[in-house]
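Write out the bound-state structure for NDP.
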Amino acid sequence: MKAIQICETGGPEVLKLAELAIPQPGPGQVLIRVEATGVNFIEVYFRKGVYKASLPLIPGSEAAGTVEELGPSVTGFAAGDAVASVAVLGSYAEYALVPAAQLVKVPAGLSMEKAAAAMLQGMTAHYLAYSTFSLKAGDTALVHAGAGGVGLLLTQMAAKIGARVITTVSTKAKTELSLEAGASDVILYTEQDFEAAVKQLTGGKGVDVVYDSVGKTTFDQSLNCLRPRGMLVLFGASSGPVPPFDLIQLSGKGSLFVTRPTLWHHVATRAELEWRSGDVLGWAVKGELKLRTEYVYPLDEAAQAQTDLESRATTGKILLEP
Ligand code: NDP
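---
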């Protein structure tokens, strides 16, 4: 099978096309034929060595495809089923293994592209809005990178709940997308001081929650945007990791909360996985959750796909199709 392999950490050029054997499903595993795979920032962190993995590695954990073969003791799936997962063991490939416990069926009416686009960023937005800081109507949230993959989905979910969503984006074109997703106010943080803008937009009160995936360049000012006892949810590091931080600052700035969640702790049980994927895929089928999937690359252009994601050139989802 064709697969993208990394034998050393580094720039996008270490993503090399390779011819490898199709893996055999072990107990509890399912072999899927990958039809669309999601490109996510976490793969950039692994490629660069920011997150450690043993090499050689086939990157990628998100895909939609069809069941090819079941490993011993797997029940509940059959060959030909349309399925999707965020726990694929190397999704930048034509075939991949998935633990059956982390596999869900794709509802009828949803394309493979949309299913792959919805899973990881959609369930991330879901846990951020419904679990980490459980938004309610009337809350005000600040969402950084509002036209990004997670940003567009989180904005739609928060707006649907009835929260006021203020976003930050880097370009005017991204402003339009963010407004379409349901943002009430969009701040061009490359031109404007977003902290001053948030204070002005909230009459000096501050927001209830900041969802910050940008990290290094936004973290300090994000804290200053919160109301007393508000919550900063740091869930990514698109601009680089946040340096060590003295917790006493949380007291001085208003008894603030800071959390650093990841998706894996929010889909670890079958019940939570089915709740979040059921909501996200269900809303996508009904058209209640809009998925932007105009960035689709062939598998052998994985390096270009990651380059575009890193360079802030993209909006919404990036997909590879083997
Ligand atoms: P995005 O589509 O949001 O892409 C990243 C965006 O970050 C860019 O488009 C850009 O938006 C913004 N950005 C700001 N500064 C920089 C910079 N210096 N370099 C690059 N981008 C920058 O990506 P995803 O939706 O895939 O992921 C968003 C973040 O969420 C990532 O950090 C990812 O790791 C994290 N994440 C965390 C999860 C978790 O459970 N903790 C799960 C999924 C994703 P703009 O041009 O508008 O500034």
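---
Residues 112-132 form the longest helix (21 residues).
The pocket of NDP is lined by residues 40-42, 120-121, 124, 145, 147-151, 169-170, 174, 213-214, 217, 235-239, 261-263, 309-310, 312 (CB under 6 Å).
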